[in-house]
Amino acid sequence: MNTEKVTARRLTAEEISELSLQDGIFVSAEMDGLPLDCYAPAFLTRPGKNFEGGSFTARTIFGEEIHVLPDNVEERGIWMADEAGEEIEVLQSAGVLLNLALFVPDGKKESLESLYSAARDAFGAGIVQRWSEETVAVPDVKVDLYEEPARGRKNTNSQNRDRRALDIYPTRVRFLEPSDGWKFVVEPHKEIVDDTPTI
Is the pTM of this model over 0.85? Predict the structure, then answer.
């Protein structure tokens, strides 16, 4: 495991209740129920003052949610960096997991194998792995993707639309997320024709 020693101190429930979402903390490095004998960088899921009952929820930088009763001596608690504290082992991010959706023209097996080989050459044969593979035929069609308010009034003009992306393939739309309070509108692609007269 890639860890480093960090000087930190354990916080009380009262101290945690004063933390905001931006305050960096350390919690037990559990992953999918697998306890690890170290800590992970994390942030509270909501400001400390909004928690009740002395139980706090933090999300680690690895996406795991940890529920903590900080005053319970049997739990590891919540820690914060402090030069006057004690040393703890903190799990570091060793890399990034990419979930890739690749469009391969004419999708031949040889093309996919050459992509895989190039990735292994670039990052190392022991690093790049194919966990699952789904081959989907993609139609050669493009759409226009707009965002508009999720609760827009009916029979209004489209001036409140915000063009999010142009010339996008429909299969890519499912990998995007709209902004908060907005929804996607997908329409057949229309070429923009400039009718401005020229001299």
Answer: no
